[in-house]
Amino acid sequence: MRRPVFFACWKANKTRVEVLKFFEAVHQRGLELKNKTEVILAPSVAHLELSLLKMPKPLQLGAQDVSEVASGGRMGEVTAKQLKEYGVKYCIVGHWEKRLRGETDAIINQKIKLLQDYDITPVLCVGENWQENQSNLAPAVIKRQVQGALAGVANVDKLVICYRPSWINERGIIPTPDYVNIMAQHIRECLVDLKDNPLDASLPILYGGQVTPANVKEYMKQPELDGIFFIGAALNIDTFYGVINYDQKQ
């Protein structure tokens, strides 16, 4: 049984005061997860401890990145061990912005192994750029990313995968739900091929890219999608609720 997972990310947004106001609003409203989803919230690393103290129990703490080294002289980076001390449960790896800055599949692979060593679930982002998309290379790129990131990873079943192509930002084009479903199905096939294990097709697969309360339902109707990775809508309390508690019946 695949589980629904919603991952909200604040990137480098929100001051300490704004974080406190957000969680104050959550406590005032209460937080019932109507769709029985897991909801993870990833603040800036500067606000991990504050968020852990203030977020209500239905929310789980996520991180936006991790170092590929266990410890040592890495300026400005945070290690898996440090994230564990903060109570982080999930961590993004392989986001297109990091890939654009030179993060390779081999580096992502190291990050995944370190996260799993500390019982933190990696959220692996995969997806093609615009040129690859227009050259019909998306399936091959995604297969390479999945195989490279998960080479030698023992616990493939302890992952979340997110389809997040860079061309949403590069071109301002939002993929249709049907297209996202095709890519999610391809990711499942790649996971099965990786270890010839049909059970690996049960991993939660998310979609990320300009998801709002207005379109979340159309994506969640897709049979191969289990959840959403969202950023812009996560910053505002009303749209945050609108995404995680979207009306399945309307």
CATH level 1 class label: Alpha Beta
Structurally, how many domains make up the residues? 1
Strand content: 5-15%
Strand adjacency order, main sheet: 1-2-3-4-5-6-7-8
Write the layout of secondary structure elements.
Layout: E1 5-9, H1 16-29, E2 38-42, H2 48-54, E3 59-63, H3 80-86, E4 90-93, H4 96-100, H5 105-117, E5 121-126, H6 130-134, H7 138-150, E6 160-163, H8 167-171, H9 177-195, E7 205-208, H10 216-220, E8 227-230, H11 237-244
Parallel strand pairs: 1-2, 1-8, 2-3, 3-4, 4-5, 5-6, 6-7, 7-8
Helix pairs in contact: 5-7, 7-9
Account of the protein in words:
The protein has 250 residues and is of the alpha/beta class. 40% of the residues lie in helices and 15% in strands. It has eleven helices and eight strands. It has an eight-stranded parallel barrel, surrounded by four helices. Helix 5 crosses helix 7. The two termini are 24 Å apart.
